[in-house]
Design brief:
The complex is a heterotrimer.
Chain A: E1 10-14, H1 18-27, E2 31-38, E3 41-46, E4 57-62, E5 65-70, H2 87-90, E6 94-103, E7 106-111, E8 119-124, H3 126-139, H4 147-154, E9 157-161, H5 172-175, E10 187-192, E11 195-200, H6 203-209, E12 215-216, H7 219-235, H8 245-250, H9 257-264, H10 270-274, E13 281-287, E14 293-300, E15 310-311, E16 314-315, H11 320-339, H12 349-352, H13 360-369
Parallel strand pairs in A: 2-8, 8-9, 9-10
Antiparallel strand pairs in A: 1-11, 1-12, 2-3, 4-5, 6-7, 6-14, 10-11, 13-14, 15-16
Helix pairs in contact in A: 9-11
Chain B: E1 15-26, E2 29-36, E3 50-55, E4 59-64, E5 75-80, H1 84-89, E6 97-104, H2 110-113, E7 117-123, H3 127-139, E8 147-153, H4 165-170, E9 174-179, E10 189-190, H5 193-198, E11 208-213, H6 216-228, E12 236-239, E13 255-256, E14 259-260, E15 267-269, H7 270-277
Parallel strand pairs in B: 7-8, 7-11, 8-9, 9-10, 11-12
Antiparallel strand pairs in B: 1-2, 1-6, 2-5, 3-4, 3-6, 12-15, 13-14
Chain C: H1 5-8, H2 11-14, H3 18-27, E1 29-33, E2 38-40, E3 48-54, E4 57-63, E5 67-74, E6 79-80, H4 83-86, E7 94-97, E8 101-107, H5 108-117, H6 119-145
Antiparallel strand pairs in C: 1-8, 2-7, 3-6, 3-8, 4-5, 4-7
Classes of the chains: A alpha+beta, B alpha/beta, C alpha+beta.
Chain lengths: ~375, ~280, ~170
């Protein structure tokens, strides 16, 4: 697991050696997952070659808006974030957790306790490192531990990539999660014209990096990397006021603005699906034809689904306003009570992928504008 | 939030249990005795905790234990046939097997309650998760002062465990019953539990805890009655119900404000959850 | 007459200042009703107002074809026959002693006169009466909500398959 303290060592390697990094990881048994272009979006998928990376592509984002555009250079990581997040690897959208088998001695239950796969994530942004740390708290740091998540997390190799540009939807600086990768990685790359400046975050990272035959970082490279990273900082225009936000929201649970946003929200669940920290799930029964074998699958669910809160007496959150309130107050307020952190990392995905362009930062501002009830 | 008292275990670890006895309680309520097929498993739990009962192909349901916590060879669950799982269970005969995960959740705060007087208020099926506490009180009678048990139900036949009331009374528990809709032959009390709380005269209200399980609205007004008697919200305990699926705080379904009712509850101190209970559709 | 402790401990009298209470005590008389005794009948004029100190009293209302429907049980500390103070003494239910019942009984006319002559007393008596009735009203509302009723028809839960979450968005 990546160490949490940053070892200050920096090295560099030319662009054509990135393939060696992928090969080094693959030869050590890792499945490398990184950015690829698919269906007009940059998604995260398995890859074995740098040729599969989104070379020369960037993304243009706004509320309810996402378009891929050509860059005027050959940057491999010249985009921000797409609809996928790494939770699809660590906390898959569907996963069998238990199998039930009917035997002569009645039902027998076999939990799926292990996932030996080793994943290496290539291109993890600072906000995404923060999101992984948030889900670590959910699935590993409480009284109960999700053994499958924990095992994948234990085996995870993380190559972070510092943002060199920001989308109009980004607000990581408000959430104090980026854009600079500070901790939680094995290696962190900054892409510059001549190659990569690489920070080493773990011994494991240093060992893998050796395969790229890195060299010391010269002053020019160091300055170029700093300039590139600063460009991302300078481009961030969105802001969320997090000062006293938990109390501000919890004192406005009956605020009329919930109804206002409830009328715009389609309850489509997009925001929760693209959110890198949302962890809600349901269990579904998958039977074979004889009914003698049943798998229990955990599937992503969303607090926007009407049945999410349903009890025998009916659903608790009866309308979209109540469901939006649950999502927002959980994410930004009660998450602090539960996990001692905000549930929002400022990646802006929920803004981009909302079909009606609801903007979490604007909703927070609107709620804060009028006094508590 | 309240510290979780559940033994950490792999969250999906499911025991095979066999139905060895079914006691019909009311029209649609029965108590099931569930014995683990693995004899090395003991059925320890804290009164107020729940298990997840699993019917393969149908689903899981969170059900409180309703039996004697000192009994270590079986779990007792009193269940109303109301959802997919519980209605399927109601059709299953003695001898069938099913899955069980647990125990989960916080129980009644036995350490806080010890040495104090208790007002125990049960509404309808809410008596089920309180019965293990009553057994605990009977086993440790000297650890508790005056214990008043107020049981409300819709109708006289809806009163759970009537054969046990005399035993509870013989241990000095003050048991009162009341129903909303009396039958012609009912000679007991009529009206909701709040009226019975209003009539209590507590010798030492500052050393009295109010312990409740029943419909939320009932508990809300019972707490108001309790407060008038001098029982503050930090000595009032409620057991709450929400949609529970994973039982370990992973799935998000059972949230009420900051609480995951599966691991921070189902038993919560009232002053900590009251602000959230009063918000509609939270 | 020694005024029963149970009456003094009742919520009705506890909230009344001692000097007012002293005047009320002078009017009150302890009375006993045997089990089965009809203390008053629905629709009849009843000229006493009671504060129950022991035992329970069933209040019922007569419904054609259904008979006497019990609606409430009054017990120690409760007021009984409040209509004698505020509704021209026409009783709105029938009260039957379920067991030996003791009550402090106030002649309603005299009590009402006392309240009218001395508005200070009147204020306290009516405030306590309103508080007692509001508790009874809340209890009646809770009863009306039929909270223990099992859901008549459980909702059909649509299958999870097909919801977002099954596919990677």
């Amino acid at each position: 697991m990546p160490s949490n303290s940053l070892t200050a060592t920096e090295q560099s390697f030319p662009k054509d050696r990135l393939q060696r990094l992928i090969d080094a990881l693959r030869s050590r048994g890792y499945t490398v997952v990184g950015p690829r272009v698919d269906q007009d979006a940059i998604v995260y998928d398995e890859l074995d070659s740098v040729e599969q990376l989104p070379r020369g592509w960037t993304d243009e984002q706004g509320p309810g808006h996402y378009r891929l555009k050509r860059r005027d250079d050959e940057a491999l990581f010249g985009y921000v974030v797409g609809p996928h997040s790494w939770k699809k690897i660590l906390f898959p959208p569907r996963e069998t957790v238990l199998s039930a088998e009917k035997t002569d001695r009645g039902w027998q239950f076999i939990p799926r306790a292990t996932d030996p796969r080793k994943f290496a994530l290539l291109g993890v942004r600072a906000c995404e490192l923060a999101a992984i740390a948030v889900q670590d708290r959910v699935f590993m740091d409480g009284p109960h531990r999700n053994p499958l998540y924990a095992e994948r997390r234990q085996n995870l190799f993380i190559i972070a990539v510092n943002c060199t540009q920001a989308a109009s939807t980004c607000f990581c600086t408000s959430m104090n999660t980026g854009p600079r990768c500070r901790a939680g990685f094995d290696l962190a790359l900054t892409e510059i014209e001549t190659g990569f400046v690489c920070e080493i975050g773990s011994e494991r990272g240093a060992e893998v990096l050796a395969d790229c035959v890195p060299t010391a970082v010269d002053v020019e490279q160091s300055r170029a990397a700093e300039t590139a990273r600063q460009q991302a900082v300078d481009q961030i225009i969105r802001h969320m006021d997090t000062d006293g936000l938990r109390e501000a929201l919890l004192s406005r649970l009956t605020h009329p603005h919930w109804r206002d946003v409830g009328e715009r929200c389609l309850s489509c669940t997009n925001c929760t699906m693209v959110c890198p920290t949302c962890f809600c799930s349901s269990v579904t029964e998958v039977r074979d034809l004889t009914h003698d074998r049943v798998d229990r699958d955990v599937v992503w669910d969303s607090c926007f689904n009407p049945d999410f809160s349903t009890m025998s007496s009916g659903p608790v959150r009866i309308d979209t306003a109540a469901r939006y309130r649950q999502w927002l107050t959980h994410k930004l307020a009660t998450w602090h009570d539960q996990f001692e952190t905000s549930g929002c990392v400022g990646c802006g995905r929920c803004i981009t992928w909302c079909p009606v362009g609801i903007d979490i930062t604007a909703e927070v501002a609107a709620l804060r504008e009028s006094p508590a009830a | 939030m309240t510290t979780c008292t559940t033994t950490p275990q792999p969250p999906w670890h499911t025991h095979t249990v066999r139905i060895t006895e079914i006691v019909t309680e009311t029209d649609d309520v029965a108590t099931y005795r569930l014995v683990p097929t693995d004899p090395t498993i003991t059925t320890h739990f804290t009164p107020g905790q729940f298990n997840m009962l699993y019917l393969p192909g149908v689903g899981e349901s969170a059900i409180s234990m309703s039996g004697d916590p000192t009994q270590t060879d079986a779990w007792m669950h009193t269940i109303r046939a109301v959802g997919n799982v519980t209605r399927t269970l109601a059709r299953m005969p003695v001898g069938e097997t099913l899955g069980l995960r647990g125990p989960f959740g916080t129980g009644w705060p036995l350490n806080d309650l010890q040495g104090n007087d208790l007002v125990i208020v049960a509404g309808g099926l809410g008596l089920a998760p309180l019965r293990p506490l009553l057994y605990h009180v009977l086993h440790h009678r000297a650890d508790f002062g005056r214990v008043c048990v107020i049981i409300g139900a819709r109708t006289p036949v809806g009163l759970l465990y009537p054969v046990e009331y005399d035993n509870w009374r013989s241990h000095g528990l003050d048991v009162s019953l009341t129903v909303d809709r009396p039958a012609a032959d009912w000679t007991g009390q009529v009206g909701v539990v709040t009226l019975l709380i209003d009539r209590l005269r507590l010798p030492r209200p500052e050393q009295t805890h109010l312990v409740m399980c029943g419909p939320e609205v009932m508990m809300k007004y019972a707490a108001i009655s309790g407060r008038r008697l001098g029982i503050t919200d930090d000595r009032t305990w409620v057991s709450l119900e929400r949609n529970m699926q994973c039982a370990v705080g992973f799935c998000g379904h059972c949230q009420l404000g900051p609480a995951f009712l599966c691991k921070d509850g189902p038993v919560l101190r009232y002053d900590r959850i009251r602000p959230y209970l009063s918000v509609e559709a939270l | 007459m020694s005024f029963p402790d149970a009456a003094l401990q009742s919520e009705f009298l506890r909230g009344i200042p001692p000097q007012v209470c002293a005047q009320l005590k002078a009017l009150g008389q302890v009375r006993a009703f045997p089990p089965g005794c009809v203390i008053f009948a629905e629709g009849a004029i009843h000229t006493d107002f009671h504060l129950i100190t022991e035992g329970h009293v069933r209040l019922d209302m007569l419904v054609p074809c259904r008979g006497h429907m019990a609606i409430l049980t009054a017990g120690p500390g409760d007021v009984l026959a409040w209509s004698a103070l505020v509704c021209q003494s026409v009783m709105t239910s029938t009260a039957v002693a379920l067991e030996p019942v003791k009550a402090v009984t106030f002649p309603a006319d005299a009590l009402r006169q006392l309240c009218e002559q001395n508005h200070e007393i009147g204020y306290h008596v009516m405030r306590q009466l309103a508080a007692a009735l509001s508790r009874r009203l809340v209890a009646t509302r809770l009863q009306l909500l039929d909270l223990f009723d099992a859901p008549a028809k459980p909702r059909e839960t649509p299958p999870i398959v097909g919801r977002p979450g099954d596919d990677e968005c």
